[in-house]
Amino acid sequence: MVTYLREVDAVFRALADPTRRDLLDALFVQDGQTLTALEERFPMTRFGVMKHLKILEEAGLVVTRKRGREKLHFLNPVPIRLIHDRWVSKYAASWASALAELKTQLEDTP
Amino acid sequence: MTNLTTVSFARGTAPVGDTAVFEIFIKTTPERLWEAITDPEMRAKYSFGVETHSDWTVGSTYLAGIPGAVDIATGENVVVDPPRLLVQTFDALWSDQVRSQATTRVTWEIEQVGDSCRLTVVHDQLSAGANAELYGGWPMILSGLKTLLETGELLTTPGSLMYATPRPDGKEPPS
Question: Minimal CB count within 10 Å: which of A95, B70, B126, B156?
Fold first, then answer.
């Protein structure tokens, strides 16, 4: 069995929290942020943001890279792709993407 | 929070810094993973059906595509250190839109972790407002690579072998 099964619980646990989804949103809008930059965007302590980032890192949804003295946080979409490929791929991806696109278009239209 | 409804990878409007990072754990050896990245036939099985040809020496070029049909990408192998590190320049060739984009860089890092490998693909030197198509294919490629090495099977996600002949969905590959 693929190692994916070991990791999938951690991904869903990480995504179950609204603050952690907001952190991923923040990295989606601007990738490669420092803890300090992320902390400024959230009404919580530095320790609180660190704790959430650690859970996202353990799930593989956030990857850190050093640049000079800075530690940058990047959104890693691969674990979500693995979940997609597990369930959606074999059956209905074209339907699902068409419906998702329709939803986006309708909701974007003023 | 920022309103995200106007941001779409599909429409290429997702903002990007100069770096995108993709990481995956694969239960395999560094040697086998290196082979899967550098062997044209293995590479095609998880890269939209696209073969990558090179002699994999430092300073050599590589060309990804379907020979005689379509070119996908080319560049120089800047660092070749098997089975740990491969740094390449990346010029996309698959459409007029991506051909007009500046040269970027792709780094493959392989690190053994227990009985698995951590593979990190860093696609950087992206210009401001770079076309998201340049780096948007990595999650599907890495998912297919993991599936191939761990199960020997091909990913069946629609589009995952879009350039292959024959295609799993029976359609003609785009030219």
Answer: A95
Smallest Cβ–Cβ distance between B21 and the set A63, A94, A101 belongs to A63
Whether A96 has its CB under 8 Å from any CB of chain B: the answer is: no
Looking at the DSSP bridge assignments, the partners of residue A72 are A65
Minimal Cα–Cα distance from B132 to chain A, Å?
A: 12
| B158 to A93: CB separation less than 8 angstroms, yes or no | yes
CA distance B156 to B62: 27
Distance separating alpha carbons of residues B145 and B115, to the nearest angstrom: 17
A18-29 helix and A46-58 helix, angle to the nearest 10 degrees: 80
| Averaged pLDDT for residues B169-174 | 68
Write the pLDDT tens digit of every residue in A47-100: 999 999 999 999 999 999 998 899 999 999 999 999 888 876 555 455 556 666
pLDDT 10s digits, B41-73: 999 999 989 999 999 999 999 999 988 889 999
DSSP letter at B165 equals S
Residue B59 corresponds to which tokens in the numbers above? 């300073």
**Which chain A residues are within 8 Å of B15, Cβ to Cβ?**
29-30
- Window B:24-83, CB contacts with A under 8 Å: 24-27
Instruction: Please give the residue range of the domain that contains residue A35.
Output: 4-108
In order of start, what are the domains of chain B with their CATH numbers? 19-151 (3.30.530.20)
State pLDDT tens for residues B67-123. 888 999 999 999 999 999 999 999 999 999 999 999 999 999 999 999 999 999 999
**What is the number of domains present in chain A?**
1
List the single residue in A with minimal CA-CA distance to B17: A31
Q: What is the CATH number of the domain that holds A22?
A: 1.10.10.10
